[in-house]
Amino acid sequence: CSVFTAFSTTFQAAFAHESIGLLTMHYMIDAVFVVEMYLKFHTAFVDSRGIFITDPLLTARRYLSTNFWVDAFAIAPFEVIATVIPGHTMKNICLLRTNRIISSYKVLLYIQYCAGHITQSASKLGFLKFSYLTLLVTHWTACFWFILGCYDECDQQAWPFKSDEIVVELP
After folding, report:
1. Angle between helices 20-41 and 56-65 (to 10 degrees)
2. Using CB atoms within 10 A of its CB, is residue 40 exposed (0-12), middle (13-18) or buried (19+)?
3. Distances from the Cα of 16 to the Cαs of 20, 128, 171, in angstroms?
4. What DSSP letter does each residue of 78-141 carry, written as one string?
5. Distance between CA atoms of 41 and 28, rounded to whole angstroms?
6. In contact, 160 and 154? CB cutoff 8 Å
7. 158 DSSP assignment
8. CA–CA separation, 42 and 61 (whole Å)
9. pLDDT tens, position by position, 63-119
């Protein structure tokens, strides 16, 4: 879910902000993330002394001291702000949903987990992490660049669509 959210949230904000189906899918994934947050409050862990901790108060305290605030910010419904403002558009709602891309940190945590628990070579996992980050940052940059160029409804005559006018003269 984190990989899909990381790529599709910015894609929807840039290109498919009128897609109700994609927005509905995002809200279903948000529900999965809320359930995941609830489960993290009750997930047992091994402490620094090697003791398996199952006490609900201690597991909740540990989650609150680690990734809870990042998860809470990533799932916060900032798009509700757009619904209060008169004249809001679906594009504004989708732009305010881009905080969901923060949840992509979970993929990096999973790669780190694999490095410690699976006998894969460090270079393969490093390459996987580098490839994921490169694709993600390139995708985000392209989507935000398009949003900057076409915030006010682009037509086919706007600069992001004009590729036939670029002429390169070679010496």
Report:
1. 130
2. middle
3. 9, 28, 41
4. THHHHHHSTT--HHHHHHHGGGGGGGGHHHHHHHHHHHHHS---HHHHHHHHHHHHHHHHHHHH
5. 21
6. yes
7. S
8. 10
9. 999 989 999 998 888 888 777 877 777 777 777 788 888 888 888 888 777 776 666
